[in-house]
Amino acid sequence: MKTIIEPFRIKSVEPVYFTTEEERKLILENAFYNPFLIHADRVLIDLLTDSGTSAMSSNQWAGMMQGDESYAGSTSFFRFEKTIQDLTGFPLVIPTHQGRAAEKILFSILGGKGKYFVSNTLFDTTRANIEYSGAEGVDLVCEEGKHPSIPAPFKGNMDTESLQKFINEKGAAAIPLCVITVTNNSGGGQPVSMQNIREVKAICKAHGIPLFIDACRFAENAYFIKQREESYANTPVPEIVREMFSYADGCTMSAKKDAFANIGGFLAMYDETLAQQCRNMLIMTEGFPTYGGLAGRDLEAIAIGLTEVMEEHYLQYRIRSIEYLCNKLIAAGVPVMQPAGGHAIYLDAKAFLPHIPVDQYPGQALVGALYVHGGIRGVEIGSLMFGKYTPDKKLIPAQLELVRLAIPRRVYTQSHIDYVAEVIIEVFQQKGTIKGLRIIEEAPMLRHFTAKLKPVI
Ligand SMILES: *Cc1c(COP(=O)(O)O)cnc(C)c1O
Q: Which of 42, 113, 183, 276 is deepest in the core (most CB within 10 A)?
């Protein structure tokens, strides 16, 4: 088998920014050990997120020139709407300025005190929007998904037994919605099998609970199904995508992921009454239903991106480039979530830095070390992001302490990825020198974005 190449050539480039290790030490200190507070031009390889950071194609840029900026009834909206209808089968399509705006609208309508939203794993903004409504978010990921170092094909699956048990316990009336996140971002970018979606649907249907898909990475998930679920080996990706959505009653989507757009999102569904409630809220918070907080040109870029993302050469390159990095790290003995996820590498910070206790945020400490050593920016997905406190202010840690290195789509080449592997391996060889952190300032919700930290001496 020959090398799997980047399935594009480069027409326009932008510089990367070089700094010295000494400079980066100071920059990190001034950013209070929080990568979100570092200026982007002080980062060499930016793996903070794959969200909104994709390289758009020449077709998308051309499409942007065709954006119809009419306030109402824009032709770009109808192109956007038709693309999503064809892709998902959902007839009602509501644009939003990004994924969390779709969530805010949906969960303000369906949420409230005493309600539970069950999921394989809720993403942080999804959980925050649920909790802000007064409801509770419940993660029921399968057992395999809880063990980072043990490979399994579909670690994003929902635990159907726990789901059934939870419904019996709380009663279906208290559960307005079940959400399947594909791929499971907070659980390592791991895919969900078609079989699992089907089983979850059957349980939900039996209890009259609607099922929504958090569809941010639907194409990556579909490609994993093609690779790993035998009966789909010869099924074209768009057909797999259509089948995934066929089991759901609706979806929320961030177009900043699998639509190669720099901004955007949407809600889509069957239920007319719910859609009307969503549109009423949309007009208050986002804009008129034919633009929903986006420019006409963004709607064009999203529509084109949603089609490009299902090309199999692209998906093969995409999934392979993450696996390539993962395999290099495994070969060097670096503790990494296995198998590779669809959009990111997840370092297991608890195993990487066993000398740092969880209440000193080993994930965040590792993020800092990767930045100082190689100018690489990643993000902690662990107790800084998901930790809670007991009434006497003791940390209730997250299930896993991970560092996510998300790979932007179509942005970095193989030599960039080789460099990333070298930096991680070198940091691993000197891991004993890395110190834990403590929080000196934090917000009550989504604290990881703004928290300020200091090394524990
Ligand atoms: C990014 C993301 C969201 C939120 O989308 P934004 O566009 O960032 O608001 C929701 N769910 C998942 C799984 C995501 O990855």
A: 183
Among 308, 324, 356, the domain boundary falls at 308
| 436 C-beta closer than 6 A to ligand 1 | no
In a domain, 3, yes or no: no
Does residue 321 share a domain with residue 303?
Answer: no
Ligand 1 atom having least distance to the Cα of 264 = 7
**Residue 12 belongs to a domain:** no
In angstroms, rounded to a whole number, what is the distance separating the alpha carbons of residues 290 and 164? 39
pLDDT the model gives residue 272: 98
Task: For Cα atoms 344, 104, 112, give the angle at the middle one, nearest 5 degrees.
Answer: 120
- Give yes or no: residues 71 and 178 share one domain: yes
Domain extent for 322: 21-50+312-455
> pTM, whole model, 2 decimals?
0.94
Q: Cα–Cα distance between 35 and 46 in angstroms, integer?
A: 10
CB atoms within 10 A of CB 318: 24
> What confidence tier does 255 reach under pLDDT thresholds 50, 70, 90?
very high
Question: Strand, coil or helix: what is 358?
Answer: helix
Residue 51 Cα to ligand 1 midpoint, Å, equals: 8
Residues 303 and 318 in one domain: no
Domain boundary among 280, 308, 336: 308
Per-residue pLDDT of 51-101, as tens digits, reads 999 999 999 999 999 999 999 999 999 999 999 999 999 999 999 999 999
Residues 62 and 31 in one domain: no
Give the residue, out of 48, 185, 285, 343, with the most ligand 1 atoms within 8 A of its beta carbon, to mutate for a pocket test. Answer: 185
Of all protein residues, the one whose alpha carbon is nearest to atom 12 of ligand 1 is 123
Give the separation between CA 237 and CA 260, rounded to whole angstroms: 17
Residue 149 has pLDDT above 90, yes or no: no
Determine the average pLDDT of the residues in 252-267. 98
The residue whose CB lies within 8 Å of the most ligand 1 atoms, and thus the one to mutate among 257, 343, 346, 381, is 257
